[in-house]
Design brief:
Helix content of chain A: 25-40%
Shape of chain A: elongated
CATH class of chain A: Alpha Beta
Largest interface: A-B, 28 and 27 residues
Strand content of chain A: 35-45%
Number of helices of chain A: 3
CATH architecture of chain A: 2-Layer Sandwich
Number of strands of chain A: 6
Largest sheet of chain A: 5 strands, antiparallel
Number of domains of chain A: 1
CATH topology of chain A: Alpha-Beta Plaits
Structural class of chain A: alpha+beta
Oligomer: homotrimer
Distance between the termini of chain A: 14 Å
Order of helices and strands of chain A: EHEEEHEEH
């Protein structure tokens, strides 16, 4: 089973560092860095807005734990958004390419 | 179970209003507003293009119905895109933070 | 069952061609073209970065095979990213609109 893992980063530098780290450490086949968007959330009773960059990470389900650990290592937040969605279908050759991760 | 809910908005004002409304009303833990993209769809036999802003809303499955109602209240379309995808895994502390929504 | 299908395109021209093709051929109800982001991946031992445009295609599960074939026809890569995620819930009228695809 393959998955998409999303995380958000406070700036381009962190986004770049994390995307290169998880690909170099063969914890992800590919990472798409979106352009900076705006995250809205409640913090201590106030609605806050921050500029954040969303990463869309494609990997294998069995690599989720080490991928999470690698993101936490390089992320400045204590509790960053790290969520995973199942890939239910896809181009067979592309899914095999994701699977080439040892 | 937590979910990602996607909706698209015609402009920044609607996107901002909806993202603040669903966070303020504690129907979502966090909303990521993407930069404006382009939506392509068929309408009365013609392929149309509109600028739209995608919202990526993170919440609890049991809040889907009131979240949908709140989006419809603030959205100018009669039938906006509102679709939900299951979050199958994630950072435990982040998932607990989503769950803190009453 | 409805699905979101993601594919990434090397430039605006390919992104536009594919989004119009799949809507015109009634293989998708709607396609959202994101602004160009950056894809990071490993190729022959090096970490590469390319500008890519993500398409978020909304369609019916039973149209996945012909949609995949149509994307491959118009895509310059041999093995593009084509991955599908299930839509688990949504605005009933919007889901019916997706279903209006024959």
């Amino acid at each position: 089973m393959n998955i998409i893992v999303y995380t958000t980063c406070p700036n381009e530098e962190v986004a770049r560092t994390i995307s290169h780290k998880v690909v170099t450490e063969r914890l992800a086949a590919c990472v798409h860095r979106h352009q900076a968007g705006t995250s809205v959330y409640e913090w201590e009773g106030r609605v806050e807005e921050d500029s954040e960059i969303l990463l869309m990470i494609k990997t294998k389900e069995k690599l989720y734990e080490p991928l999470e650990a690698a993101i936490l290592e390089a992320h400045p937040y204590d509790v960053p958004e790290i969520i995973a969605v199942s890939i239910d279908n896809g181009l067979a050759a592309y899914l095999r390419w994701i699977d080439h991760l040892d």
